[in-house]
Amino acid sequence: MKITHYSFGKIVINGNEYTQDIIVFHDSVFPSWWRKQGHSLCMEDLGEVFKKDVKILIVGTGAYERMQVPQSLIEELKQRGIETFVYGTEKAVAVFNQLLAEGKAIAGAFHLTC
To answer: Is the backbone of residue 62 left (phi > 0), alpha (psi -120 to 50) or beta?
Structure first.
């Protein structure tokens, strides 16, 4: 599931273009990802992540990093055995691709716009 392109509002994965926020796994995509509170990430937003054997979660907070990821959420994910990294979406995509190439058990949750 290599991400080959990201720009504001658009991401391309394995040749398929998506224009809504998305969660990407090594073997699948969960498109049209919506969050309970829009620009703030909470545990309830990550249900799809918990269905997989994910050890690393990369969060892309948008082109202008508007999506908030509370430190308490990062700590709770760590207690569940998931290491979490938070970046603007452009950098998050690069880190996701790098860790994916290394064979890590990874998921990427990407906010595509602001």
So the answer is: left
Domain harbouring 93, CATH code: 3.40.1230.10
Which residue range is the domain that position 26 belongs to?
A: 3-110
What Cα–Cα distance (Å) separates residue 12 from each residue in 22, 31, 44, 55, 85? 11, 12, 26, 24, 21
C-alpha angle 92-87-108 in degrees, rounded to nearest 5: 40
The string of pLDDT tens digits covering residues 6-64 is 999 999 999 999 999 999 999 999 999 999 998 999 999 999 999 999 999 999 999 99
Whether the pTM exceeds 0.90: the reply is yes
Strands 83-87 and 16-18: unpaired
Record the tokens describing residue 111, joined without a space: 């906010």
Q: Which H or E run includes 95?
A: helix 89-101
Number of domains in the chain: 1
